[in-house]
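User: Working on a comparison across species. This one is Oxidoreductase, short-chain dehydrogenase/reductase family from Aspergillus keveii. Can you predict its structure so I can line it up against the others?
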Amino acid sequence: MRSNTFNPAQDIPDLSGKVILVTGGTAGLGANSVVELAKHSPAHIYITGRNAKSADGVIKQVAETGTPVSFITCDLASLASVKRAADEFRSKETRLDILMCSAGIMATDAGLTADGYEVQFGTNHLGHALLIQRLLPVLQSTAALSGDARVVLLTSLGFKMHPPCDGISFDTLRTTQEGFFGSWVRYGQSKLANLLYARELSQRYPNITSVSVHPGVVNTGLVEGLSLARQTFVWATSFHNMVTPEEGIKNQLWAATSVKDGIRNGAFYEPVGVLSTGLDKAAKDDELAKRLWEWTDEALVEYYN
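Assistant: Here's the predicted structure for Oxidoreductase, short-chain dehydrogenase/reductase family from Aspergillus keveii:
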C-alpha cells in the first residue's frame, strides 16, 4: 500500500497470539510503532532501550489497550548488554513472531563502542546482528509453528553515503574512521550493512521473512539530537519531504504485519511497501553481503554460545 492509503488503525490485522520485540521501543519510531501494534491485541510486546523512565511512559500510554508490554534493558553499543537482553527474552518466551529492529543512531561524532568498533556501525549493525543471531532459534521455531516469523530492519536511503570505493571499510571498523564528511559516511556504511544483512539473512534462513525498510526522512529525536550544522544539512536536503513520526512508522508496520505473500523476502522497501529501484552497486552486491555476514560472524562468535 502507498503511504496515502495505509492506515495502521484499519490495515494492521488482528495480532492475537503474536509476540513482538521492538528495539528502540522507548522513543521515536519504535515507541510510535508499539502504540499502534498494541491496539491490535498481540499476546505480548517487548521493548528494548537504555532508558527505563521512557519505557514506563510507553507502557502507561498503551495500558488502556490491555496489551502486555515489558521493558528489557539493552544498549546496542555493548555486545554484552545485547547478549543479556536476548537471553532475558528467551527466558520469558518460546516464540517470536515479529522482531522489529528500529533503534539506531545517526551522524554522531567519531567514537567507538564498548567493544572497540566504530560507534555507528557497532550500534546500528553489529548490535542488531547479535540480537538477531541470539534470537534465531526462537524465530525459526515460530516460523515452523505458524509459518510466519519476520525480521524488519530499519535502514535509510542514506545508505548511499557509504564509503565510495568498497561500500564497507572492513579493515578500519575498529577505528573511529574519521575523515571529510565522516559522520555521514559512517552512517551510510551502517545503513548499507542493515540492508545487506537483511538480504543475506533471507538467503540463509528463507523460512523467516527478513526485509529492510526506509521510513522516510522523519523529524524525530535523531534529527533533534544532531549538531546545528548536521541539522542544517538534513533540513537543507530533505525539508521538502520530511515526514512526521506518525507517517514514518507506516513502512515498518506494513512490513511487520501485512500479508506475507505480498512481501518479497530479502527486499528493501521505501514508504510504504514500495519495492525500491534505487539500489546502487554496493547495495546490489551479493558478494559484499556474504562478506559482511562472514565478518560479522567472526566478530560475534564469542557471544553466540
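For your comparison, note: Residues 235-240 have pLDDT under 50 and may be disordered.

User: Helpful, thanks.
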